[in-house]
Amino acid sequence: MKTTLLALLLCLLWPGLLRAQQKPAAKKAPATTVKFDPKQRPKNLTDEQLLDLVQRQTFRYFWDFGHPVSGMARERSNVAYDYGSEVVTTGGTGFGIMAIIVAAERKWIPREEAAARIYKIVRFLEKSDSFHGVYPHWLNGATGKVIRFSQKDDGGDLVETSFLFEGLICARQYFTGESATERDLRNHILWMWEGVEWNWHTQGGQNVLYWHWSPNNGWSMNHQIHGWNECLITYVLAASSPKYAIDKKVYDQGWATGDYFKNGKEFYQTKLPLGFDYGGPLFFSHYTFLGLDPRGLKDQYADYWQQNQAHTRINYAYCVANPKQYKGYGPNSWGLTASDSYQGYAAHSPTEDLGVISPTAALSAMPYAPKESMAALKHFYFDLGDQIWSEYGFVDGFSEHHNWYAKSHLAIDQGPIVGMIENHRTGLLWRLFMSSPDVQRGLGKLGFEGAPVKK
């Protein structure tokens, strides 16, 4: 990839590409006491049974491996960045909350236990470091103190906070019972939600949101949030805030700008409305859309269902064409997105292809390409399962070409597998998130149309 594009990706994909500079160590964090044997996995499964198994096994990352003090999602299953298993992730916890909701709905765990776990997380967060109501990327899961993500990233991270509240809003809409736990959970989520000062991140009233603010470093990172990438949810929630909302002009003049917002070109006979050439990593169409329902969602810039389908089709077609002739690529083994690789963490895409397939890419694309995603799921499980199936679902990445198979799992990759497969199957998380009156008001303010709450 050209140096200029690498620099641009470093700017737009800040969290993922920053991780690429910090290569995971081989040491494992605390694991289950009974050694898991992937060769003993069930083999004679129907499609529905396989979907059930993959969702449930992946959910275990958040339930069994959640931090014992805070209940939050650990950043990853292996020790890295010179930190240990105390590192919990704000955005990954939001995805984990959505996975817990799925588990409760499917009765893998009792509803009251699900509510109690999320309430534990919420109460911990209320006592943890936050900055104008905005949480840092990483926290210490035992103390609630910020763990800096980089030298100056030691304050609020607006994008990670938006992923967290994507999950919390779903939880508030799901746990509507009259038990003391569910009532308290709803109230505490509301207080946290009302306290996020989204408009503070316009840096004094500019018509753009800024990613980071720190009490030690102020706005010195100076990273504006421009589209197209994973951050649409940040602008939607900022417009939806009951007390600290942004105006539409912040969306139009901040988000919907830049050389890599509108595209309109064709790749592999598919027109791509928005984003980088060839679409970029697939998580662009996952993170925001775990809650935000893209079906029929339109504004003046795009039809977001068409956008996400196009992005997925291009990623799939690239892997099938396999211009670099990597071993293992094909119609049943595809999907490029940010994940671990044999070179460390990398934002894999058609323009940054290292020969690494990330299972979360194809599996979280299930709503957009169900046939192709199911073919990948079967291949990953039945054919490659000895290498990539684990106690927490599929490992984070693999490369048959380089004979490399990750041992790690990341919260931000495991969570979308559970949530997006569920949205494909039942639309559960889409219904919950879209049922929020605040979200509906925010979407209306930004000019979105055709996004009714679906039954």
Automatic annotation (TrEMBL):
Keywords: Signal
Residues spanning the signal sequence: 1-20
Domain of life of the native organism: Bacteria
A UniProt-annotated Pfam family: Glycoamylase
Residue intervals of the Glycoamylase-like domain: 222-437
Entries under InterPro entries matching the protein: Glycoamylase-like_cons_dom (IPR019282), UCP028431 (IPR016883)
Name this polypeptide is given: DUF3131 domain-containing protein
